[in-house]
Amino acid sequence: KQEVTQIPAALSVPEGENLVLNCSFTDSAIYNLQWFRQDPGKGLTSLLLIQSSQREQTSGRLNASLDKSSGRSTLYIAASQPGDSATYLCAPEYGNKLVFGAGTILRVKS
Amino acid sequence: GAGVSQSPSNKVTEKGKDVELRCDPISGHTALYWYRQSLGQGLEFLIYFQGNSAPDKSGLPSDRFSAERTGGSVSTLTIQRTQQEDSAVYLCASSLSRTGELFFGEGSRLTVL
Questions:
Q1: Is the predicted pLDDT of residue A13 greater than 70, yes or no?
Q2: Residue of A18, A68, B45, B72 with fewest CB within 10 Å of its CB?
Q3: What is the mean pLDDT of residues A75-93?
Q4: Sorting pLDDT into bands at 50, 70 and 90, what band is A30?
Q5: Do A97 and B59 touch (CB under 8 A)?
Q6: At A23, is the pLDDT very low, low, confident or very high (cuts 50, 70, 90)?
Q7: Amino acid B1: pLDDT
Q8: A109, A13 in Cβ contact below 8 A?
Q9: Residue B104 is nearest to which of A31, A32, A43, comparing CB atoms?
Q10: Chain A contact for B51, CB < 8 A?
Q11: CA of A96, closest CA in chain B: separation in Å?
Q12: Of A75, A58, A80, A60, nearest in space to A12 by CA
């Protein structure tokens, strides 16, 4: 069974800190991996898409790395801001579907 | 449109009634997906469309659930004889291709009383 684990489950940090969110997946036969954020009561917003042949992807203060062989991805958030507060979801793609982790709830305090 | 549009945003229904949820994907996106998000289960895949065909229906939880897509665009998810366990947020997503970046709508929150 394809399972995705995200650690930590929740994180509370002061503004300005650099953060690391971890994702691990049991089946390494992925097509790609996508990171999303979800604000309360909202849909999912795509942050980064990493193809299986890539090692990392960057967008602004966000950097995601992928180690397919070990079944891990990491999302780095630099210089965190209160607006970064949300739930962050990792989702590797298998065939026709994404399999989601339970997410990391991030709170950035001002 | 600019993004994935879903309607209704909220639906309250009585147990046993049928409901229809609509998804209007981003123009030009050939791949369309339905997911369900509930408190106990997280985000679950329901069905995948490529054009008007549904090559993967493996996530539909029972035969009370069905979906169609017409004109390679709008999709409707139908739940017949709703049960309380069907209460969840139903999310639709689209992408340019099967392995492309997914863009999600805001979801339809279904409450079955």
A1: yes
A2: A18
A3: 97
A4: very high
A5: yes
A6: very high
A7: 53
A8: yes
A9: A43
A10: no
A11: 7
A12: A80
Per-residue pLDDT at B70: 93
3-state SS class at A94: strand
Cα–Cα nearest to A59, from A35, A38, A82, A81: A35
Q: Look at the alpha carbons of B110, B55, B81, B21 in this order and tell me if their dihedral is positive or negative.
A: positive
The two tokens of residue B50 are 């490529």
pLDDT at B68: 97
Of the partner residues A51, A98, A101, the one whose CB lies closest to the CB of residue B102 = A98
- The answer to whether the Cβ–Cβ distance between A93 and B99 falls below 8 Å is yes
Interface touch A44/B99, C-beta < 8 Å: no
For residue A58, list its beta bridge partners.
Answer: A63
Distance of CA B101 to the CA centre of its chain: 17
Cβ of residue B55 closer than 8 Å to a chain A Cβ: yes
Strand partners, B7: B22
Q: Is B101 on the interface with A (CB under 8 A)?
A: yes
Check CB contact of B103 with chain A, cutoff 8 Å. yes
A40 touches chain B (CB under 8 A): no
pLDDT at B39: 83
Can you tell me which residue has the tokens 């369900």?
B36
Mean pLDDT by 10 residues, chain B (113 residues): 90 98 96 92 92 94 96 96 97 90 95 97
Dihedral over alpha carbons B111, A39, A64, A6 (to 10 degrees): -50
> Cβ B42–A100 below 8 Å, yes or no?
yes
